[in-house]
Amino acid sequence: MTDIAMQLHIEADADTVYAAISTTDGIRGWFTTTATADRDVDGLHELQFPGVPEAWRLRITEAEPSKRLVLAGENGPWTGTQQTYEVLARPEGDVTLRFTHSGFPAVDDAYRDFTYGWATKFVQLKAYAETGKPAPFFTG
Q1: pLDDT, tens digit, for every residue of 25-55?
Q2: CA 12 to CA 92: how far, in whole Å?
Q3: Whole-angstrom Cα distance, residue 87 to residue 58?
Q4: Which 3-state string (H, E, C) describes the chain?
Q5: Is the CB of residue 95 less than 8 Å from the CB of residue 115?
């Protein structure tokens, strides 16, 4: 199995960053405007993308507010993969976000597309968490 691993510094507090990755409003602020997100373990995140007929479902397997969120892909191209977000508070009051998307079966075109995709989406996440101004990558 192959993993995507990224880390970024965000000049926002842990509560703000966690809300951006774990709530409906947060996800709509940087990722896709057609998202819904439960917050508790066993709940779902459902993400809709333009031109994709079915929402991608992610089951919450771990949720430690302001610290850690783990999502398991249930359908679409993320089936069988896991996304782990670790929000690491820094003494300065900002955070390091450590992200791993694990379980890809191979380093193929889809894997390469998702690697690039996450990098571009996290630019949006960083800007949203730092400014509070919504600028979702996908709309509609």
Answers
A1: 999 999 999 999 999 999 999 999 999 999 9
A2: 10
A3: 19
A4: CEEEEEEEEECCCHHHHHHHHHCHHHHHHHCECCEEECCCCCCEEEECCCCCCCCEEEEEEEEECCCEEEEEECCHHHCCCEEEEEEEECCCCCEEEEEEEEEECCCCHHHHHHHHHHHHHHHHHHHHHHHCCCCCCECC
A5: no
* Chain segment 99-130, per-residue pLDDT in tens: 999 999 999 999 999 999 999 999 999 999 99
d(CA 14, CA 3): 24
**Contact (CB, 8 A) for 5 and 114:** no
| pTM, entire model | 0.96
Q: Measuring CA to CA, which residue among 37, 19, 34 is closest to residue 138? A: 34
| Structural tokens at position 120 | 């571009």
Residue 120, judged by CB atoms within 10 A of its CB (0-12, 13-18, 19+), counts as exposed
Placement of tokens 């783990």 in the chain: 70
| Tokens 């730092």 sit on residue | 130
Which residue type, as a one-letter code, is found at position 103?
A: G
